[in-house]
Amino acid sequence: MTATTDPVARNEWIAAGWLGQIAPGASHDTMILGQPIRITRTGEDSYRISEIGEDGSEGRELPIQTRYTCIFTTLGDPTRPLPEIHEFDEADRVVVGCGNVGVNTSPYRLVENFLDMAHFSFIHVDTLGATDKTEVLAYRTEHRKDVDEIWAVDCTFFQPAASKAVKGGQMTRYLYRVMSPFSVMLYKNISEDSDRNDAICVFIQPLTETRCLAYMPMAIVDNENTAADIADFQQSIFLQDRVILENQRPALLPLDPTYELPTRADASSIAFRRWLKAMDIRFGIYEKQAA
Amino acid sequence: MKITLYDYSLSGSCYKVRLMLGFLGLEYERRQVDFYPGRQHKTPGFLAINPLGQLPVLEDNGLVLRDAQAILCHLANKYDGDGTWLPRDPASFGPVMMWLMFAGGELMAASSARLHDVMSYDLDIEAARKSARSAFRVLDDHLTHREIDGGTWIMGDHPTVADLACFPYVALSGDGGIGHEEYPAIRNWLREFRKLPGFHAMSGISEYV
User: Fold this and answer.
1) What is the pTM of this model?
2) Which residues on chain B are in Cβ contact (under 8 Å) with A243?
3) What value of ipTM does the predicted structure carry?
4) What average pLDDT score do residues B66-84 get?
5) What residues make up the domain containing B36?
6) pLDDT band (50, 70, 90) for residue B1
7) What topology does CATH give the domain A86-286?
8) B121 in contact with A at a CB cutoff of 8 Å?
9) Of B8, B34, B117, the CB nearest to A102
10) Cα dist. B77→A176, B80, B81, B85, B87 in Å?
11) Is A80 helix (H, G, I), strand (E, B) or coil?
12) Last residue of some domain: B52, B79, B106?
């Protein structure tokens, strides 16, 4: 596809690489929102990102931020900053990046899968859910207007193994936070201390409307397992989701509320779709075909 | 007796060995290798264990083995008292070896397609999918003949290391954009394999329900 003209999508910060992906002095060609770009690692901690023109030459230089183990850039003029996630600044946490994983669907299907608790008992059997405990208890959603984010609060779900560190089943409390159309995260209580919740993000790089790379930076409280163990756990969970994601039709997200019928457990997805509709985003959205 | 497996959960080749260990009821210690994104299998520390820089590696009482197919044969040879996983009779041994090599050879194109789609490996994805489909065609034709003869497995009347070695990357091919629609005999065989006592799934493959 050619680069999107949708100003809403163009004005978001988008993950385009992970720290350590590119060797110093080397460059890596990729794509965001249909626009080919080149990321060059100019020094140990410095990068340059340029658009690649049709003739293969480097064109306009793009803004860069490196945070949360990722390299972020944008095609436009961001209206919101990168989210603040203070858990990544706590020195005693294990911060794991997990590289990126390719998924052939639209970015919003990824966000919705991440928000969804109803699939735990069927897709993540014996880890995030148990086949005999499938109920999604009522939770609340909020549009936090001061930061323009969607939150889902008071979420609880029974989990046989909520993380690599947990031994035995527990009722896990979740907080979900959608920070942009292309970024979502959750906080989950692994210990009793709610200030020490695990923070798990998904930053999505939409290559095109239906091809994405997903980055999963995490800031985890875990004194026993290595970063590799924690990444292995998270990647195993994500590759279970990936099968489901790639089989959802249409791949593009319908915003017409009559197109897909939600249940009460989908409250966070309903809030997310309303929010997308209100911001009038067009990229990756399923347009109703004229009859 | 102490068995150690250098393992990565998402590796279909490691999964072959985990399945074999499970079917034989063997206890083992797992050493996590950060295959992606860490590429730990290409670091000097791991190359000292396997100079080819590949997973899996199995340590069994000081014996260090690489290559999933070789490891399957070792485990079956040493620990399968019934000898069913690795048949020694002259009529079966050759065909089982033939399909075992096929699993480590032609079928690995399906693994390449998966590495491309999931972990952004830079390779010719269309060529990989084409090769994988050709290999699936050969396996599906063979399994169709077996069905006509009243058989379920690749060779003989019980599963062997050949079935086990072929299973993971065929079952996981959807991860690389290769569906099973054109391979009805493969679909039947996958279903039967998932019903085996001691079978366990991995990400991308569901338990039999």
Assistant:
1) 0.94
2) 174-175, 204
3) 0.92
4) 97
5) 3-79
6) confident
7) Naphthalene 1,2-dioxygenase Alpha Subunit; Chain A, domain 1 (3.90.380)
8) no
9) B117
10) 51, 6, 8, 8, 9
11) coil
12) B79
